[in-house]
Amino acid sequence: METHQDSTKTADLRVVPANQASSEDLEKIFGTRGDPGHCRCQWFQNPGKAFGALTDEERAERLRAQTACGKPRAAQTSGLVGYLDEEPVGWCAIEPRTAYPRLLASKVPWAGREEDKEDPDIWAAVCFVTRTGYRRLGVGRAMAAAAVDFARGRGARAVEGYPMLLPEGRKPMWGEMFVGSRSIFEEAGFGEVSHPTPRRLVMRIDFTESP
User: Fold this and answer.
1) What residues have CB less than 8 Å from 180, skipping those under 6 apart?
2) What CA–CA distance (Å, rounded) separates 49 from 20?
3) Does domain 11-206 have CATH number 3.40.50.1000?
4) Percentage of the chain exceeding pLDDT 70
5) CA separation for the pair 50, 188 (Å, rounded)
6) Residue 14 has pLDDT above 50, yes or no
7) How many CB atoms lie within 10 A of CB 135?
8) Which of 76, 80, 122, 141 is deepest in the core (most CB within 10 A)?
9) Please, where are the H alpha helices in the chain?
């Protein structure tokens, strides 16, 4: 696909809960090759060796089940889908952080913090995917902002993100940057909570008013 020009305005991005998108829309965003097509946003959902034990198709099927895509009346969903000119272009995984066993099992995000990891009212945005051909247009930034509104509207007391910092000139390893960059969280209003490793940040918004 030809890459669109930077003049595309992400202010026109329409974002919906993933159950209002179709499975075909998800397929277009994730594709069938590269890291998104391989992972299908299952890394945080399947800790330890469970992730590696799944085939790509099994991961895709789990994503379809988690999102309840194509079922707008579903009681629950996982994530958001963004559209430009009715084309599906962006994905953000956003739900209570208790939905992510790998996150809860990791020591890194909790270093120096004293709080209940199992608090269901704290949400987490853990993954961003922009469809090939629509990158460098600010889709990730728009999805991060939408994730804040989505979490707040669903009753969250706070929402967190766990972006990576890369040294200048260093290319990311497999999947590193799908957690998002510092800048997209900052622009969405997140503030730094901690810097547990040289490359990892914890960023957060606490909602002081009722949704």
Assistant:
1) 125, 127, 128, 140, 144, 161, 162, 163, 164
2) 32
3) no
4) 89
5) 33
6) yes
7) 14
8) 80
9) 23-30, 34-39, 56-67, 101-105, 139-153, 182-187
pLDDT digits (tens, 9 = 90+) for 91-112: 999 999 999 999 999 999 999 8
For the chain, the average pLDDT equals 89
Residue spans of the domains in the chain: they are 11-206
Q: Does pLDDT of 66 surpass 60?
A: yes
Please give the distance of CA 23 from its chain centroid, rounded to a whole number: 17
What DSSP assignment string belongs to 133-169?
T-TTSSHHHHHHHHHHHHHHHTT-SEEEE--B---TT
CA 7 to chain centre: 24
**What pLDDT, on the 0 to 100 scale, is given for residue 208?**
78
- The predicted pLDDT at position 1 comes to 34
* Structure confidence at residue 135 (pLDDT): 87
Q: CA–CA separation, 172 vs 174, rounded Å?
A: 7
Q: Residue 27, by phi and psi: left (phi above 0), alpha (psi -120 to 50) or beta?
A: alpha
pLDDT at 172: 57
User: What six digits make up the tokens of 161?
Assistant: 């993100």
